[in-house]
C-alpha cells in the first residue's frame, strides 16, 4: 500500500503517484507535504533529484482539486492564476509542468507553462481564461506583466524554485521585481540547493514563520554514487569515452562538458561511431532542446551531452552513468552533476576525466566533498600525475545577515 495515503491526499492523486511507481515518500516529501497542506510557508534546502517537485506540487494540486469537487467551487479569475511556480530554465519549467499534469489528471485544473523562445499568443490566451497553476521563467513572465496580460489578484501560493540558480544566472533582480507584484497575503515556498547570503536575506523578507526542511545534497550523492576519475592526456579523452561506452550496461549516459562547441564536437564523434547522441546547450533552439531531452528520456538516444547552464534542472530517470568530460570550475556543480545518476534513492555511477592541468580543480572538488575520488589505473589511457593532498572538510559557518543588508542585484537577459 502506498505510504502517500498517510498525507490524506485525494484518491486520484494517490492513484497517479502509484502509476509513476512511487510508493514511499522521499525525506523531503515526508517533511514538506504535511506542512504545506497545513498552510505553512516553507524554506526547503535540497537539490534537484530529491523529490522536490512532488513535495511542493502535490499539496497545491490537492488544495485546488478539493476546491473543484467541493460544494463551494472557486472560479478562476481572468488574466490571473491561483498559484505561481517560478523556476530558472525552460527545461525545468517544462518538467515541472509535465509532472503537475500527470499528478492532476481527472481533476480539471487549468494549468500552463510559460517561457521565452516560443510564441507568446498561446500563453496569453490560456492566462486570459484564468489558471489554477502557472509555471514560468522570469523573463517571459515579466514580459506578460508589463503588457498587462497577467495579474496576481487571485494568487494564493507562490513557489520560488532553484533560488540559488536564479542568482547564479543573473535573474535575481527580475525575481525581486516579480515578487513586488504579488499580494502580501499568500503562502510562500522557497527552495534552494545552497544558501548564500543573498538567498538568506530574501528568505527572511518573503517567508513568514516558515517550516525549514534541509536535505543534505552531499550526503545523498556521496552515499549513492560510485565515483571514479581517469587521469589521461587531453588527446585521449574521446578514445577513453569510446572505451567506456563499449560497456553495454551503460544504456543511458549523461556527459557534461565545458562549452557549446565542445558538446557538438563530442556528439559528432559519437555519431561517427554509430552511438546515438545529441547535445543540449543554449545555442540550440527551444524546440531542438526539448526534442533532445525527450528522446533521451524515452531512450531513443543513448547519450546526451550538456553544458552546465542548459542541464540545470534535468530530471531524467534511470541515468546509468554521468561522465564529467570537463571538470566543473565550481566544486558545488560536481555534486549537482553526479547526482543526476542517483535519483529517488537509487544508486548510480560517475566517471570524471582529469588532465594534468585539472589536478588543482580535482583537489578542490575532493576538498569540498571531504574524500578522495578513486583513480582508475586499469584503463588503457592512464597517466600518472602528482596530486596535492586533500584537506579535512570544514563545516561551513553561515554568517547571519543584518536586516538592513540588501541582496546584490544583477541584471540578466530574459529567457
Explained architecture:
- The strands form two sheets. The chain has a seven-stranded parallel beta sheet with strand order 3-4-2-5-6-1-7, with helices on both faces. It has a six-stranded parallel beta sheet with strand order 8-13-12-9-11-10, sandwiched between helices.
- Helix content is 38%, strand content 15%.
- It is an alpha/beta fold and 415 residues long.
- It has 16 helices and 13 strands.
- Helix 5 (121-128) links the parallel strand 3 and strand 4.
- The chain has two domains: 3-215, P-loop containing nucleotide triphosphate hydrolases (Rossmann fold), CATH 3.40.50; 218-369, Rossmann fold (3-Layer(aba) Sandwich).
- The chain has helices spanning 11-19, 27-37, 52-69, 90-103, 121-128, 138-146, 163-168, 172-180, 197-206, 217-224, 237-245, 260-272, 286-297, 308-311, 331-338, 359-369, and strands at residues 42-45, 81-86, 111-114, 131-136, 157-160, 187-192, 211-214, 225-231, 253-256, 277-280, 303-306, 321-324, 348-354.
- The model is unreliable at 394-415 (pLDDT under 50).
